[in-house]
Amino acid sequence: MPMAVATSFALIVRLGWHDSGTYDKNIEEWPQRGGADGSLRFEPELKHGANAGLINALKLIQPIKDKYPGISYADLFQLASATAIEEAGGPKIPMKYGRVDVTEPEQCPPEGRLPDAGPRDPAGHLREVFYRMGLDDKEIVALSGAHTLGRARPDRSGWGKPETKYTKDGPGEPGGQSWTVEWLKFDNSYFKDMKFLSQIPLEEQKEQDLLVLPTDAALFEDPSFKVYAEKYAEDQEAFFKDYAEAHAKLSDLGAKFDPPEGFSLDDVTSDEPADEKKEEAAPTPEPVAAAVATATADDNNGAAPQPEPFSAAKYSYGKRELSDSMKQKIRAEYEGFGGSPDKPMQSNYFLNIMILIAGLAFLTSLVGN
């Protein structure tokens, strides 16, 4: 894994989360309800305080969108986020796609829907924000575990030290303060480190050079949160399972899908025989994290290598139900040739002639040989 790619993981995960994390379950209308709709690409939302620094994530993603405009921003943000988790060593996220983008800045959600790192009542604030999205205590704690990746920078979030013994030499752009020692690896070390730090005096915590936000500390202070935090510190498999489910749920919040049920990149099911399914199944997509490395960004994680190109065909969902607009287009073309919705065309002389010509050409080639 190229280092320039690995150092972008946390940034890309944050981009996906902050696009979907504005969802309000109390609002039915789309896009007023917020959520995963691609609105974070617009300047008004990028300027929200909680989104400081995410312009750099957008710069990494934009060249892919420019090359493959058929992919919605909403899907691309979530696809990149889930891929980054997996590529960093985390679980595979059971994602679905087909999200529809908002089209103008006026459709951005209001500021203030994302979590604050240092509220007066950390546990209460987490519940207020995540309950509004329809998430529960287990999902709050599981999602917090993504802090195992990345660093906080005071010039972006206002939190963390300018550098620590774990970040002063990079990799990537030096500096910032990480929650874990191995901050490029997705595992359960966040819970292990937070548990250890919660058991020592504050002055000793500072000597560890690891970041502990008020909302991090709340996971081992609040009785309900602590049950899950303790469990994840001891059992990485349980953490991965709960995290994958929570991440998938978060990525769908507020989204409008086309087709309405969405589609999966791994879904190759059809009614054809097994040998035909194998031949026609849509291939698995290239990791978006690799394609991201081809972009040039100002947050500078070193020169980007040249990975395999992102294949738009691999984003296709294969044999699935067509959208209503596509059905109407096909029907119009069919009727244009003389067919109707109620009965097939009586004959197709052109097709018959072409079959006859092809047969004669084949016989002629046999005689010639």
UniProtKB/TrEMBL annotation:
Q: Which reaction does it catalyse?
A: L-ascorbate + H2O2 = L-dehydroascorbate + 2 H2O
Q: Where is the Plant heme peroxidase family profile domain?
A: 35-268
Q: Which GO terms describe its molecular function?
A: L-ascorbate peroxidase activity; metal ion binding
- The EC category is oxidoreductase
Q: Name one GO biological process term.
A: hydrogen peroxide catabolic process
Q: Basic and acidic residues: which segments have biased composition?
A: 152-171
Q: Where is the signal peptide?
A: 1-18
Check the record and name the SUPFAM superfamilies matching this protein. Heme-dependent peroxidases
Q: What cofactor is needed?
A: heme b
* Compositionally biased residues, Low complexity: 287-305
For this protein, the parts annotated as crossing the membrane are 349-368
Region annotated Disordered sits at 151-178, 261-315
Q: Which Pfam families match?
A: peroxidase
Where would you find this protein in the cell? Answer: Plastid, Chloroplast
| Entry keywords, A to Z | Calcium, Chloroplast, Heme, Hydrogen peroxide, Iron, Membrane, Metal-binding, Oxidoreductase, Peroxidase, Plastid, Potassium, Signal, Transit peptide, Transmembrane, Transmembrane helix
- What is one cellular component GO term in this UniProt entry? chloroplast
InterPro entries recorded for this chain? Ccp1-like, Haem_peroxidase, Haem_peroxidase_sf, Peroxidase_I, Peroxidases_heam-ligand_BS
Enzyme Commission number(s): 1.11.1.11
Family affiliation: Belongs to the peroxidase family. Ascorbate peroxidase subfamily.
Q: By its UniProt entry, which PANTHER family does this protein fall under?
A: L-ASCORBATE PEROXIDASE 8, CHLOROPLASTIC-RELATED (PTHR31356:SF11), THYLAKOID LUMENAL 29 KDA PROTEIN, CHLOROPLASTIC-RELATED (PTHR31356)
Task: Write down what this protein is called.
Answer: L-ascorbate peroxidase
